Amino acid sequence: MDVEAGTRDEPEPARTSSRLQPASPHRGSDNLRRAPSSEQLTAAADRAREGRARFLLAVLDGSQSLAEVPWTACAGDDRRLLRVRLRQLVTTAPLWDARRSNAALGHVAMLAGAAFAEVRDAQLAWLVDPRSSGRRILAWLDAFRPRSRPWHGFPFAPVPDTFPAEGPGRPPVLAARTVDGELRDRR
């Protein structure tokens, strides 16, 4: 106490930082976004299911091959296609029954270093995941790329003089060897 002035020495009040503001009753409500309604969520889920169904129908009618499917799913802006399950995708393809599908998915699992159950239940996003360094997509391509032999009986039979020169996407055309050993189309 200051005797001469007759007042008490009181410490100065603590200064408040300019960053601290008194709490308002509705603090942060301006920054929150409105949550989507249940109708909007249902409509978005329906659109996603419809897009995946169109994708599977393209595989079913043969306009998409199983080797092209990962590129189609990743090339578009529709990331919902990556939620299609691999087993559903393979069994949807024409001429692929459960036994052949299991064999192909087992081949993918072996080459990718994963368990068969993991591959069977995995989604297309698992296949193109960048953390696998392309190992899974290469296993997929190895399982589903078209295979062909150069000629019937290869490698044990000799090269025939005449053989079908058809290839993927080309109509069957007979080719013959000329005297010089070159191939010539017979038309």
| Poorly predicted tracts of residues | 167-174
Series of secondary-structure elements, N-terminal to C-terminal? HHHHHHHEEE
The number of distinct structural domains comes to: 2
Question: How many helical elements?
Answer: 7
Q: What would the CATH topology of the largest domain be?
A: Helicase, Ruva Protein, domain 3
- The largest beta-sheet arranges its strands as 1-2-3
Q: First CA to last CA: what distance?
A: 120 Å
**Total number of strands:** 3
Largest sheet: 3 strands, antiparallel
Beta-strand content bin: 5-15%
Could you say which overall geometry the principal axes of the C-alpha atoms support? elongated
Description:
Helix 3 (86-92) packs across helix 4 and helix 4 (98-112) packs antiparallel against helix 7. Strand 2 (174-177) and strand 3 form a beta hairpin. The chain is 39% helix and 5% strand. The protein has 187 residues and is mainly α. The radius of gyration is 33 Å and the shape is elongated. It has a 3-stranded antiparallel β-sheet, with no helix packed on it. It folds into 2 domains: 45-144, Helicase, Ruva Protein, domain 3, CATH 1.10.8; 148-187, no CATH class. The chain contains 7 helices and 3 strands; from the N terminus they run αααααααβββ. Residues 1-39, 165-187 are annotated as: Disordered. Residues 1-13 have a biased composition (Basic and acidic residues).
